[in-house]
Amino acid sequence: RATGMKIQVKGEKKTAWQASYWEGGVERRVEGWDMWLPDGRRVPQVTDSYQYLGNGERTKLADAMHPVRRKVVSDCDQMLRLIGRAGILGEKQTNAAMGLAVEGTVCHYGRSTPIGLEACERIERTRAEVLARRGLAAGTPRLQVHASCAAGGLGHRHAYQHAAGALEDEIDRVMQMPEGTPAKIAVEAHVRGTCV
After folding, report:
1. How far apart are CA 40 and CA 20, in angstroms?
2. What pLDDT score does 1 carry?
3. Phi, psi for residue 66 in degrees, rounded to 5
4. Cβ atoms 110, 167 nearer than 8 A
5. For a Cys-Cys bond, which of 74, 115, 129, 158 suits 163, CB 3.0-4.6 Å?
């Protein structure tokens, strides 16, 4: 509501909740609880998956983010291949277009879903394949793709740089929130539990 948007409850599509806990090394769903908005509307519990940023996130943490990661890889692959087919683009234009496509996709989804190195490596394999097909890079090893132009490389930034940056930006944003904010309390607790 602070942004002027109304809270919408439409089944499990707009506002919904999910929670799990670990017991004996097994993830279990929290069940038997009801959540209510201050205006008296009941917030439904997610039963299978939740549409977040247009993608279904599953209820259990162990596999919750796989659909989003698959979408990121698929979208990046598709855009990289389309850019590779644009024969009129030179090396610098191809670099800029690929950078915008990968950075935009990875950073958009990476603010809510850790993308991970495995997904980023799949994106980079496609990038190297497209650049090799265009005659702009050797293909393997991929050092040439990511090395700086001064070092004889093409200067492309690895998708993992964007994924890490998006996650770090979200953590920094949360840490700058006022004291007592639920997100800040949760992140501080995880930092304390991990680092202290």
Report:
1. 24
2. 42
3. -60, -45
4. yes
5. 115
pLDDT score of 196 more than 80: no
Phi/psi of residue 54, each to 5°?
80, 5
CB 68 within 8 A of CB 51: no
β partners of residue 55: 52
Q: Residue 137, Cα to own-chain centre: how many angstroms?
A: 27
CA angle 145, 72, 122 (to 5 degrees): 40
Considering the entire predicted model, what is its pTM? Answer: 0.73
| Percent of the residues in the chain that have a pLDDT greater than 70, as a whole number | 85
Written as six digits, the tokens of 190 are 């995880």
Q: Could you tell me the end-to-end alpha-carbon distance of the chain, in angstroms, rounded to an integer?
A: 36
Which tops the pLDDT comparison, 142 or 126?
126
- Return d(Cα 71, Cα 13) in angstroms, integer: 18
Question: How many whole angstroms separate alpha carbon 159 and alpha carbon 171?
Answer: 19
Evaluate whether 52 touches 112 at the Cβ level (below 8 Å).
yes
Q: How confident is the model at residue 59 (pLDDT cuts 50, 70, 90)?
A: low
**Are the beta carbons of 128 and 159 closer than 8 angstroms?**
no
Residue that is written with structure tokens 């769903």 in the block: 29
Give the amino acid at 111: R
